[in-house]
Amino acid sequence: MIERLDQIFILLRDWLVHFLPANWQAVVATVLNVVAIIAVFPTLFALVTVMERKGLGRMQNRFGPNRVGPYGLFQPVADGIKALTKEDVVPFRADTIVHFVAPLVLVVAVFMGFSVLPMGRNMVLADMDAGLLFFFAMGASTELSVFMAGWSSRNKYSLLGAMRAVAQMISYEVPLLMSGLAVVMISGSLTLSKIVEAQNRYTFGLPHWYVFTPWGFAGLVLFSIAAMAETNRSPFDLPEGESELVAGYFTEYSGFKFALFFLGEYVGMFSIAGMGATLFLGGWSAPLAILNWVPSWIWFFGKLMIAMCLFIWIRGTMPRLRQDQLMNFAWKFVIPMTLVNLFVAALWRFVGPGWARWVVCWAILIAFYVLMGQTILRRRGLGPRSYRYAE
Amino acid sequence: MNPLTGYLLVAALLFATGLAGALTRRNAILVLIGIELMLNAANLNLIAFWRYGPHPEALTGFLFAIFSIAVAAAEAAVGLGLVISIYRHLRTTDLDAMNRMKG
Amino acid sequence: MLGEGLLKGLAETARNFAGSFVSEERLTTVQYPEERVAPIENTRDFPFLVYDGDDWHAGMRCVACQICEKECPPKCIYIEKSKDKKPDYVGKPQIYPARFDIDISVCMSCQICVEVCPFEAIKMDTQFELSTADRFGGLLLDKQQLAKSNEYYHEIHPTEAAEVDARLAEEKAKTEAKARAAAAAAAAKAGAPAPAAKAAPAVDKPAAVPKSADLAAPVPKPSENKPESPAKPDQGGAPDS
Amino acid sequence: MTPVFYILAILTLAGGLAAVTLKNTVHCALALTVAFAGLALFFLQLDAQFAGFAQILIYIGAVAILVVFAILLTRSSEAEASGGILSRHWLAGLIIAAAVFAVLGWAILRGAQALPQESAVPAVTVHQIGTALMGRYVLPLEIVALLLTSALIGAVIVAMHEKESAK
Fold it and tell me: Roughly how many angstroms between the first and final C-alpha of chain D, as a whole number?
């Protein structure tokens, strides 16, 4: 029964498919998988938008949206209707074709990333040999759509937003990839299901998640920072900073295309949060051995939602960085730290089991963290700011 | 038609397109684009030969293509850096205008 | 230590998040249509016309002098004078506005009309729920929509209204005293004691009013705000004579 | 030859052709990415998954963006509109390109009979690629790593502002 529940979606799909002739079954099964992904994540997007607005409200000591439906739960429906009924305005001098294609490229690339994420036991659309590489390749192609949107709008805010976005995404893609690389080094595989399997082991009922190792913890922190920058989330939301650039690269989009950008952004956050959960938090594996009876997909989506809450929490807390701070932070702090982390991961692998590697790895990581925090950042103006006229 | 011949023809056509672009355009960046196309055509050749070659398990052509991609990325970075540096110096990316060796 | 501030900030927002569920006093906002924050007394948005008594038309203080129309910076006031007259709050017959419109889509709530009005006839309202489906006609308020009673004025701006009432009462007393003095002078001249109705002398003997006004002019005026106001009704009345 | 091959060939060649012929430089760069994407799909069709994904990651994710950045930094999309797009020696270039294609095509068609026919799909895992890179091809790998490092430093130095010369 419990196993049934764990595999309920697989069983449901197979049951639906078995009505069809044999040579259709494989195709229809794939189509059903794709449909499931396309249905689930936009629904989650709707839920998360209302969650975000309510959460941010609470952090600012006010109620969030609470008018549409019970507790404001139908707010995304109202938002959706509003977005869809708006007039689709294309600027007169815009590059019509590129302007039209940009949101589609974004949404397609973002959804492609889900095809390799294992969302539960046996629940992966395409368990590719080079799954991680595919995921990052798809993540990289969203940059182009951002540029296309900004450039084709013929608007200085859009272009500035696009330039910022592309520079930021290129800079933070390096630490994103390299912090993921540490996991690949340890697990010895680019296949995401194998990475999850490697973490789905327990000693004394506690899981072998990579986040509980020194390099894994540092990797997760660095991965989260890079992921936030990669998805243009606050505090790295310079490309769409409302107070500076209206809406950045999608200033000139309205109606459905704007909704697509919005959707693409959030779904990109889900995919990168799912990737973070898969790499460091054991994907669909349970946090305690005694909780193994809970269906695996609940754990995956639970971890995803926790990551989203973290995103929202950080958005409610941090002010926006300045452009030079952003770049300095990436190239002078995050990337060196990921390099150190790679080294530490290698050390972890070759020192072998025992308490020695714990001490050595933690010591190296903390030493570098303190060193960089104390010297480099402070000298480069990233530390606490000194005010010349105020105070 | 032999499958390998098809790939080789496509690669040759792409190479010729890239070459034509590199030789006929005035803009330095477009010349670089042409060079990128030529490199990619060569990569297609390498992969195709690996796939239909006698020893695919040796991975020779495959890894050659991977190295070629890495080298091409380095080439693009340096080439575009040069173009930007020249633009800063001469205020143009027109290759016909870059006819002096004195700065 | 690097990142210390970030953690402090995160703790602060977390405290706010949790606190907003348990302690009501943390919440700075109210649920607007149902709950409202009591307005601050000096709140103002758009002008309205004050009337005394129960009948808005009879009690309207405005005499269509058009000063506010001229002074209005965005020119959102439109006044047409009436042909006939009606008695004002002291009982003197005055022109009244046949048409008095304010386009509140143009009005910028500067309160200059209130500052310049010699009759305390136009005041600032606090009513802000003015949205309408018709943005041209719906936001052009006519004099009936603009007319609000003095009681309403007391309700929204009690301190200011009390001051205004005191000033008006003082003026009214002065005018009556003046009228009585004029009546007494006329009675002395005619030899007929005439404790007539308050309005009667002004109507019957318009010529006497300017004279009495000249006499009354040197009388010291306690009201600092509007030193000219007692003279003005007389000037308004003088051209009719 | 499958229909998929023809579709991919048309996509790639159209992209390539557009990349060298279009007037607006940014359009050229975008057409270039179409050609890159077509080639990546070609690699996937040739069972070279890893190479295909690397192609997307490096070419579409990095090189195309780099080209676009260079175009915007040099404002060559605006400069293009004023003069012609072709250089002085365009005719010679075209003839050379045509000649090269003629030679290549002749060679390919001549050698078509000698080429191997359809062969079995090579089962290559990422693990094998990694072992090969770390074993037999470790020297090229190190050289590429050195090259990339020097290219990184070189590109930074070339594009850096010359502060000393300004004084």
Answer: 64
Give the residue-averaged pLDDT of D11-40: 88
Chosen for mutation from A129, A153, A191 (greatest number of chain D CBs closer than 10 Å) is A129
Domain extent for B44 = 3-97
In a domain, D118, yes or no: no
> Tokens representing A147?
């540029």
Q: In sequence order, which residues have a C-beta less than 8 Å from that of residue D159 and are 6 or more positions away?
A: B81, B84, B85
Domain count, chain D: 2
Q: What are the residue ranges of helices labelled H in chain A?
A: 2-6, 8-17, 22-59, 75-85, 96-112, 131-152, 156-187, 192-199, 214-230, 242-245, 255-280, 296-317, 323-329, 335-351, 355-371, 377-379
Is residue D68 situated within a structural domain?
yes
Question: Which tens digits make up the pLDDT trace of C65-108?
Answer: 888 888 889 988 888 888 888 777 667 788 888 888 888 888 89
Q: Indicate whether D95 belongs to any domain.
A: yes
Name residue C141's beta-bridge partners. C102
Please count the other Cβ atoms lying within 10 Å of the Cβ belonging to residue D155. Answer: 21
Residue B94 Cα, gap to closest chain D Cα (Å): 9
CATH number of the structural domain spanning residue B78: 1.10.287.3510
B11 within some domain: yes
pLDDT of residue C214: 44
Contact in structure between C106 and C112 (CB atoms under 8 Å):
no
Please report, for the domain that includes residue D43, its CATH number: 1.20.120.1200
DSSP state of D122: P
Same domain for D103 and D35:
yes
Both D90 and D40 in a single domain?
yes
C131 interfacial to chain A (CB closer than 8 Å): no
Q: Give the model's confidence band at A338: pLDDT under 50 very low, under 70 low, under 90 confident, else very high.
A: very high
Q: How many angstroms separate the CA atoms of A138 and D60, rounded?
A: 10
| Tokens read off for B65 | 């293509």
Q: How far is A71 from chain D (nearest CA, A)?
A: 42
Query: How many domains are contained in chain B?
Result: 1
Q: Give kind and range of the element (H or E) at residue A207.
A: strand A206-207
Q: How confident is the model at residue A220 (pLDDT cuts 50, 70, 90)?
A: very high
pTM equals 0.79
Give, for C95, the enclosing helix (H) or strand (E).
strand C93-103
pLDDT at D127: 82
Domains defined along chain C, listed by start: 47-156 (3.30.70.3270), 178-240 (no CATH)
What is the predicted pLDDT for the residue at A270? 92
For an interface test with C, the pick among A52, A53, A61 (most C C-beta atoms closer than 10 Å) comes out as A61
* pLDDT tens digits, one per residue of A23-48: 887 888 888 888 888 888 888 998 89
Whether C104 and C76 have beta carbons less than 8 Å apart is answered as yes
Domain assignment present for residue B103? The answer is no
Contacts of D53 in chain A (CB under 8 A): 130, 133-134, 137
Q: Is A385 on the interface with C (CB under 8 A)?
A: no
Expressed as residue numbers, the domain containing D84 is: 1-109
* Distance in Å, alpha carbon of A221 to nearest chain D alpha carbon: 23
**Bridge partners, D86 (sequence order):** B25
| Distance of alpha carbon A32 from alpha carbon A274, whole angstroms | 21
pLDDT tens digits along B20-58: 888 888 788 888 889 889 999 999 988 888 888 777 777
Tokens of residue D18, six digits: 């557009």
Task: Tell me how long chain D is.
Answer: 167
Chain B residue closest in CA terms to D13 = B14
- In this prediction the ipTM stands at 0.73
Question: Rounded to a whole number, what is the distance in angstroms from the first to the last CA of chain C?
Answer: 89
Residues D101 and D33 in one domain: yes
Highest mean pLDDT among C33-37, C114-118, D71-75: C114-118
CB A79 within 8 A of CB A139: no
Residue whose entry in the numeric block shows the structure tokens 């959460």: A55
For residues D46 and D87, membership in a common domain is answered with yes
